[in-house]
Amino acid sequence: MPDTLPADSVGLVSPATLHVDKPLQLDCGRTLNNYHLIYETYGTLNQEKSNAILICHALSGDHHAAGYHSMQDRKPGWWDSAIGPGKPIDTNHFFVVCPNNLGGCKGSTGPNTINPETGRLYGPDFPIVTVADWVRSQAVLADHLGIQQWAAVVGGSLGGMQALQWAISLPDRLRHVLIIAAAPKLSAQNIAFNEVARTAIKSDPDFHEGHYAEHNTIPAQGLGLARMLGHITYLSDEAMGQKFGRELRSGALQYGYDVEFQIESYLRYQSSSFVGRFDANTYLLMTKALDYFDPARDFNDDLTATVASIQARSLVISFTSDWRFSPLRSVEIVNAMIKAGKHVTYAEIEANQGHDAFLMPITRYMEIFGSYMKKIASEVPSA
Amino acid sequence: MPDTLPADSVGLVSPATLHVDKPLQLDCGRTLNNYHLIYETYGTLNQEKSNAILICHALSGDHHAAGYHSMQDRKPGWWDSAIGPGKPIDTNHFFVVCPNNLGGCKGSTGPNTINPETGRLYGPDFPIVTVADWVRSQAVLADHLGIQQWAAVVGGSLGGMQALQWAISLPDRLRHVLIIAAAPKLSAQNIAFNEVARTAIKSDPDFHEGHYAEHNTIPAQGLGLARMLGHITYLSDEAMGQKFGRELRSGALQYGYDVEFQIESYLRYQSSSFVGRFDANTYLLMTKALDYFDPARDFNDDLTATVASIQARSLVISFTSDWRFSPLRSVEIVNAMIKAGKHVTYAEIEANQGHDAFLMPITRYMEIFGSYMKKIASEVPSA
């Protein structure tokens, strides 16, 4: 789609794949004897291998965080607003790594890849993976790349939870952690929304207990519903109101059950475009990883004790209109870190875009994010 | 279920039915040539017929607002907390009328009743009805009962919208209006949630374009999903957290796709119990009535001009943790009334129960509600 690549783009990129034969023990008790991780990198690793940034993706994200795969791409990677030359995560200085998570559907081992032990798709038999499992697998990728210590681990939403888990589980392997629009665990309401989404998928007659691929179909209605619902929770009431208000699609009231308001039309479009590009089993798995995330569970629900192991310096960012993971949820993390005597910086960004704000180039957000990253850059030489 | 009826209960009640042969013109352009309304009454109408209170029900409500139908009933009517001897709507003083709305599924003409013109169920061919249509039909019931002017029209949520519409459309037929947990129109987010619920119902293969009764089935999955989602919006995040937190159903993590947390179990229970007692076509219709409600549409979106016709004195009540129709939405109504020079009292009740708070016997709420009703009682003799 771009006639020419923007000057602040990482440009044309292509993914790499790491095949791992060393077994990975999962929290659920099962083991992946071998697996592969697809990932992208931007920028150049310096000689000391000290300028590497790990990007962790959220529910529907993947390894394609920045740049374009071809000049025909309609859109760049999902966090292109933050990653590139001169952007907060400045690829003139940093070597950026973004893998697709295990259980994903964009190239890493997951439900839509072949189980080498059966020769058939994993489908619903792919094990439940947790945020801690992802961190373990990402550490294997770091080992492969020769990165002993990340300059920073960065993520938003479910990605921010991975970043937090990194800082807790492998404290000496990162110098900074950036936890954006996240929470230390889901609330009952968060879990409730996930359960509605899962129920929609699982009750779709085309779901076939997750074996839909063998029936040459996909649970399009259920996955579409899950996405519609997700979208409501990603946007603020205010943002929806400003974008769509109560605008009628046709100009005049129809008094029928077809689309009447623009917001309905928008949700249907989001739903159908998502169904073509995301896997239902992966959606189930990602929502479960969210539900299970609760690092304080191993510390008697004491978040201060949970973060006691952290060595990384932290930047925590929230957005005022985010009602999925509200600023108060970030403050829980911040307060625990302060109590534990950790080095933490917190910024609550005034933004009306809701949870999705973390993906947007909001001026104040980019300034604070960029300023923090510049400090990190000053600590390490570029390549 | 009650061994003895509580002293403050209206006791055993049974509904009456009004058959109407005078055609009702609907906003959608269609006409109901005849219809019936099922309703209940509590208390005694005084000689002057001046002590009558109209109760308008919300999305899933009906005409059974208080008391018991039999000693075997597990629960009393849906607003038993507010209606009865000595309660805010004191049946020692007032004559209370509560009809099931047109398009409902509990006895009034609606999708699950016979269309006299075809001899078959209306099903999905039942016309879309609006809040203004309901007010017109409720006025026919008032005429039948000889009630020229209600002492008050009272409702919460969608019921509050009917109360507001009464005050706007038929200003000389009510002396007071009580608008509780309502809004002057839905936001884009409100409409979005409704659209997800409708999509869930309509995409259920058992929906059969609304003709499920002819297929001897019901769209149980879709209707259940709609109810699960509704429940999330009726409760506050805080109330869900206090009630369920992240309690595990089985005590230990299962790492599977079955119910893991109590909140999931609760939603599934709510879903399945609702499916057995509510009609899917009615659910669609009620959500559409919500979407279409926007009395200011006829006044160039000027709410102040919209309420200019109101003669009734008003009490508007909201609840702090209600995020479906937040206090700010009630304030929109209040501000318009103040600008229009109307007599309005407003109370924002501190409550953590979310939207459902309007159905609960919260002390401060009952005090303010009861105190206002006592003032009304002082204006009219009891029977």
TrEMBL record, chains A, B:
Which reactions does this protein catalyse? L-homoserine + succinyl-CoA = O-succinyl-L-homoserine + CoA
What is the protein's species of origin?
Answer: Methylophaga lonarensis MPL
Keywords, sorted A to Z = Acyltransferase, Amino-acid biosynthesis, Cytoplasm, Methionine biosynthesis, Transferase
Annotated ranges, domain AB hydrolase-1: 51-346
Which GO CC terms are listed, alphabetically? cytoplasm
Q: What is this protein called?
A: Homoserine O-succinyltransferase
**EC number in record:** 2.3.1.46
Protein family membership: Belongs to the AB hydrolase superfamily. MetX family.
The record describes its quaternary structure and partners as:
Homodimer.
> Which sites bind substrate?
227, 356
What biological-process GO terms show up in the record? homoserine metabolic process; methionine biosynthetic process
Q: Which residues are marked as site: Important for acyl-CoA specificity?
A: 324
Q: Name one GO molecular function term.
A: homoserine O-succinyltransferase activity
